[in-house]
Each structure stands twice: as structure tokens, then as C-alpha cells.
Amino acid sequence: MLLTFDQAKQKILQACTTVKSLEHETVSLNDALDRITAVPIISPINVPRFDNSAMDGYAVRLADIEKSRTLPVSKTVYAGDDIDDLNWAIGSCLRIMTGAPVPNDADAVVMQEHTQVKGQHITFLKDIKAGDNIRRIGEDIKKDAITVAKGQLLSIPTLSTLATLGIHQVCVYKTLNVAIFSTGNELTPIGQPLTDNGAIYDSNGFTLKQLLTKLNCQVIDLGIIPDDPNQIKQALMTASTQADLIITSGGVSVGDADYTKTALEELGQINFWKIAMKPGKPFAFGQIGKALFCGLPGNPVSTVVTFYQLVQPLISALAGQQTLSADLTFKVKTATDLKKSVGRIDFQRGRVEPNDQGELEVKSTGQQGSHITQSFNKANCFIILEQERGNVSKGEYVTVTLFNDLLK
């Protein structure tokens, strides 16, 4: 009996607990993009470090404003000024610039657009409340607070925050070593001529390398392995000693020359090798020593779909990411009929766009065969059709998941 997609994904993520514990290293903030934190990052300072003005305007005491709406300007304070010895007269205001420190006895900052200037005297035109336009110390980040938790992906916004704290290096998990190879006598490396009518280019090997590089993995490319059980077995043995994860394409179906599954059975263990999903039914998952193994189908679309839906979350978990982000998923009407057979969850390629009325709808990108690579070229989402659902008519609601950065 075939595993459901959800069952397969759960087994894959559960297997992450059986592999070796992750090592970590300290890297420069400049080299930390898309790395995963190995320890919590604690803020060494308050942000802001001091009360400061949110805009150009005038610092005032409310007691002075209650006596008079027009005050003389005592002094001007700029960003970067030291105001420890600042003395400003009772009954006056301060000209103050954005980011400048606010004196402790100032109750508010009034934006200059709400004032009238006449010489050195300022008339305040609107009501003023305590705290107006003052950025308080620690309002953004408090000293000794956990700024980034352990197991978080370091994005550009997160790194920017760390830069504001003056943090110049971070402790992160080491990147995963992932070994890949493609199997098949028909495969030819890209850049070499096709020597006979049955030859095809190894696009899967190229694609897997690009996907893994985008996920910040160290790729061990073992190239193309012929349909020879001994060579496949040797490649798996070599990969298991060098990699945290082994990914192959081809050789996991039920054909006479599909030897990868047999070699995996001899060297390690198979957790499962068939899933009720389309494309991607012949997907093998197991383990050789301490290396996990994913055997992807040979058809190029099946390779990408199974990598995206199953291998991508596995890599995130193996790399130490504790919170896996969910792709944006919602229901929309389909603008096209969709062919679907009952029995397997179907990840069709589609494009979500607003129609003439401004309402979002999804269209199929055309033929959905596992060999039709063009189905991805115009797509921006997966149309996810449930396992027991059949054909879908135009106008019915379907679930769509927008592509994340991996396919952009």
C-alpha cells in the first residue's frame, strides 16, 4: 500500500533525529547570509541606546507649554551630540534633529510642520502629549534580550538587525554535505554531444546542484553512474562516507535496469519507496550508515517536485532550522479545467494572477506530464489537488501554494 504524501513527509522529518549531531562554527556577519544559528544571539546593547527624536522639530517641557504656546529657542541639538552638560532655560524649547538625543527633562518632540516660526520664537499649533515623537531607550531591542533564537535562518533583515547591535560574527551550524549522482546509460553530461538516438542530457544533475547551492549546501557531485549494480553500489558507499545526505535521480522505479533501490537494500535500509503523489510516485527514502538517502524519480519534473515538497524541508531540518516556514497557501477559483485521477495527491503547475475584475484566479500552465519541463517556466505556484479528488471544472475552488524562493 502506498504511503500518503503527509505520511511520507512525516517519516522523512522524523528520521532527522537519527543522524549525527550538527557541528558549528563562527563566521563573519558578512558570510552569515542563509546560515542557521547554532546558539541564541543575545543583544549586547539597548536599541535605541538612548531616548532620541523621531523627527526634526522642537523638544519641549509640557509645563512650559501650559504657560505659553510660544517659546524662544534655547539651543539646537544634532544627531551625535553629547548632551550631558546641556542646560536649556526654563520657558524655552530646543531645536532638535532626527536621531538626536532627547534630554531627560524634555516631555515631547513637536514636529516642525506643527509649528509656526517667527525669528527665534516658535508657536506650537497643535495639542501636545507626553512622549510624542520620542524613541525610547530599548524600545526596539532591550539589552540582554534574545534577538535571534537558536535554529533560525539568518535573512538579510535579521543580519541588518544584528549589524545595528554591532555584532560582527555569529555562531552557526556548519553547512550540510550533500552527495548527488544520476543513474542511466542514456545520460550524457551537458556540453558533450549526444552520440546516439537514445541519449539525453543529464539535466537532473545540473538542476539538483543548483537547488542545493541555493539551499546553502556543499555539493559532492559524483556525476553520472551507468546502469550497473556494482557501480551504483560503489557510488552509494563512497557517498555515505562523505555526505550527510545522498540524493540520486533515476533507478528507483520498477524497471529491469532500476538498481538503486536494490543497492540501498544491500548497504543500508529502506524506509519507503512509493508515495501516493503525482508526479513523484517512485520516491525512495532510507539510510546508509549515518547518511540519509533520497532517491528521486528520473523524469525532470518529478525530480523538481519531489525535491521541493520532500527534500527541501528535510534539508532545512537536517541543517538545524527549528522552525520551518510554511509557504503561502490559499484557495482560489480555477480559470481552466484540470484533469485529475482519484488515488494520488497531485501537484500541478499553475499561475495565480488577477483576472479582469481584480480577483485572483489560477490557470494551468498546460500539459502536466512529468517530462514536460515547460510546465514550470510560466508557473508561480503549485495547484494541490487532494488524493481523492477527481477532475476539476473551471470555476471550482482549488488550493494553491505560491513558490518560495527556491523556484524563483
Characteristics of this structure?
Molybdenum Cofactor Biosythetic Enzyme, Chain A, Molybdopterin biosynthesis moea protein, domain 2, 408 residues, single chain, alpha/beta, 6-stranded mixed sheet, Molybdopterin biosynthesis moeA protein, domain 3, elongated, 4 domains
Describe the protein.
The structure is a single chain. This protein has four domains: 164 residues, Molybdenum Cofactor Biosythetic Enzyme, Chain A (3-Layer(aba) Sandwich); 59 residues, Molybdopterin biosynthesis moea protein, domain 2 (Alpha-Beta Complex); 84 residues, Molybdopterin biosynthesis moeA protein, domain 3 (Beta Complex); 79 residues, Beta-clip (Beta Barrel), CATH 2.40.340.10. The strands form seven sheets. The chain has a six-stranded mixed beta sheet with strand order 7-4-6-5-9-8. It has 408 residues and is α/β, with parallel strands linked by helices. The protein is 20% helix and 29% strand.
